[in-house]
């Protein structure tokens, strides 16, 4: 037995409502189950319950065993002084308020149907290895229910990504251009170098970027220099020497400090994702665009965004991936799949936060853009495809990734529309 099932039973009144009696032999009528609280404190706020003909208003606490009240030391916590009902699976002992009056108890195991328990056991059956708990049923959920759930999941994903945006905004004193630079640099680094690139951005006052943005060579020298990519290089490569000299001058001029910077990695990276190329590309992006944030916010079509990100690394990198080592010649431009990632992880969360900051509804515009981007393809999404969950665009794949990471992997099935529908018997 899990406590989340008890929350589910109480919240959705999966009980014979006309037959409820407390363990103190008083009739019980649920007027309002209350507001489900997922944070600390009582499990349901502001419930309304009629016990023995008397209407009570207050909070409800849910436990597997009644004795968990004392195991969790609720008797010492003033947040639990206003508990009007204790909902439990096993009533193994009486629970008292501070004034020594008994807290009424509802023992759920007397009332929960066997059908619901069978569905619950089936959902959480651990006898066989499963990818997700509901893998035998997910393909049966109706399209309308799934579509609404995916919309909520994608917005939830935007909310999660906006946390970093809000943090950067506070640190920058509401400088949206600086936030854009920091977030772009982080996402240019992808998973392996994301934190490293962000540390470079945070070590660099954005006023310096504004001054250097028109000179790619200077901005590259600062980004490479702060990242330690100019250190420990014995090559006599002319481009490296010029960058190193430029960085030495600018480091002194602007008082640049590398101590807090995490050096980028090359290990396990494809050459196209080497930090040398990515830092050069972002330097060229800023050389090309002044007021980049405003351009990104006013672009409401995918093709407009593709045009903004139509940049390449500096010409030196046409035949190099690292300093001093010549490679086959090719222009190192941003690819469409990489731009898609920048749009999903940088532009759309920025639009979401900026719209909320200005009190404007931008969800429709965001949905329009994300629905034009091709769906992602990875091992997790392939498994959902096998289960019959069809994904057509990045909107679908982003929502499914949120489903998997926030619900499936955490066994939060009863907070998920699919799991909840299964227990309700709707699929």
Automatic annotation (TrEMBL):
Alphabetized InterPro entries for the sequence: DUF2851
Q: Which domain of life is it from?
A: Bacteria
Pfam families per record: DUF2851 (PF11013)
Indicate what this protein is called per its UniProt record. DUF2851 family protein
Supply the source organism for this entry: Maribacter polysiphoniae
């Amino acid at each position: 037995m899990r406590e989340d099932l008890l929350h589910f039973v109480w919240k959705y009144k999966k009980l014979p409502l006309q037959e409820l009696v407390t363990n103190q032999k008083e009739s019980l009528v649920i007027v309002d189950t209350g507001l489900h609280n997922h944070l600390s404190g009582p499990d349901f706020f502001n419930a309304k319950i009629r016990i023995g003909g008397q209407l009570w208003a207050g909070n409800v606490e849910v436990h597997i065993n009644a004795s968990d009240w004392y195991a969790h030391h609720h008797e010492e916590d003033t947040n639990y002084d206003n508990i009007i009902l204790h909902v439990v699976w096993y009533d193994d002992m009486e629970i008292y308020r501070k004034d020594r009056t008994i807290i009424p108890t509802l023992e759920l195991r007397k009332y929960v149907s066997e059908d619901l328990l069978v569905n619950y056991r089936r959902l959480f059956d651990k006898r066989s290895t499963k990818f997700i708990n509901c893998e035998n049923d997910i393909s049966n959920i109706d399209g309308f229910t799934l579509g609404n759930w995916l919309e909520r999941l994608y917005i939830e994903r935007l909310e999660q990504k906006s946390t970093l945006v809000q943090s950067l905004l506070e640190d920058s004193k509401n400088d949206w251009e600086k936030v854009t630079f920091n977030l772009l640099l982080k996402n240019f680094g992808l998973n392996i170098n994301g934190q490293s690139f962000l540390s470079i951005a945070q070590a660099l006052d954005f006023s310096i970027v504004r001054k250097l943005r028109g000179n790619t060579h200077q901005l590259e020298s600062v980004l490479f220099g702060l990242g330690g990519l100019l250190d420990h290089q014995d090559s006599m490569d002319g481009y490296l020497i010029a960058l190193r000299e430029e960085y030495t001058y600018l480091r002194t001029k602007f008082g640049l400090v590398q101590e807090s910077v995490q050096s980028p990695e090359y290990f396990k990276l494809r050459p196209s994702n080497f930090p040398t190329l990515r830092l050069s590309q972002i330097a060229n992006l800023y050389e090309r665009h002044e007021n980049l944030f405003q351009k990104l916010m006013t672009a409401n079509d995918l093709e407009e965004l593709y045009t903004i990100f139509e940049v390449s690394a500096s010409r030196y990198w046409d035949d190099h991936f690292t300093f001093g080592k010549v490679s086959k010649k090719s222009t190192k431009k941003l690819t469409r799949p990489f731009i898609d990632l920048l749009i999903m992880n940088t532009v759309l969360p920025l639009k979401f936060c900026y719209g909320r900051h200005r009190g404007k509804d931008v969800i429709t515009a965001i949905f329009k853009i994300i629905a034009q981007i091709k769906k992602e393809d990875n091992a997790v999404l392939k498994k959902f495809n096998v289960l019959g969950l069809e994904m057509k665009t990045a909107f679908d794949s982003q929502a499914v990734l949120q489903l998997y990471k926030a619900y499936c992997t955490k066994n939060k099935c009863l907070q998920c529309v699919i799991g909840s529908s299964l227990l309700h018997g709707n699929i």
